[in-house]
Amino acid sequence: MLLPTENTVLRRSLDQWFEAQGVRPNIVGEFEDSALLKVFGLRGAGLFPAPAVITKEIEAQYKVRAIGRVPEVRERLYAVTVERRIKHPAVVAICEAAKDSVYGK
Questions:
Q1: What is the CA radius of gyration of the chain?
Q2: What is the pTM of this model?
Q3: How many angstroms from the chain centroid is the CA of residue 80?
Q4: Is 40 helix (H, G, I), strand (E, B) or coil?
């Protein structure tokens, strides 16, 4: 398996899931950079986790194929602003696009 480093929320969630399933993956690489992790996957170094919401993009870009999903493992994304309401047009567009991508609107 190619995994994010242990200091990430995703890795901790994956480790908990592996433990609950009684799975002990053979970890061949740990990465801070998710793009580098995917490049190693492209080169056949091992399986790797990726967000389900961008499965098609990852399959096309890295010439890989999704083999399963783990609904129990989720990542959370946050947009942080000092303003109560998001006003900047670029930030509004990014938040709306993310919402549409995640929720399929």
A1: 16
A2: 0.73
A3: 19
A4: helix
Q: To which H or E segment does residue 97 belong?
A: helix 89-103
β-sheet bridge partners, residue 30 = 3
pLDDT at position 87, please? 83
The C-alpha angle 98, 99, 104, rounded to 5 degrees, equals 105
DSSP code string of 23-74? ------EEES-HHHHHHHHHTTS------GGGHHHHHHHHT-------TT--
* Partners of 3 in beta bridges: 30
CB atoms within 10 A of CB 98: 13
Residue 39, pLDDT > 80, answer yes
Lookup: tokens for 56: 């098609």
Largest distance between two CA atoms of the chain: 47
Q: Using one digit for the tens of pLDDT, what is the confidence trace for 46-90?
A: 999 998 888 999 999 999 999 999 989 987 777 677 777 888 888
Which amino acid is located at 81 in the chain? T
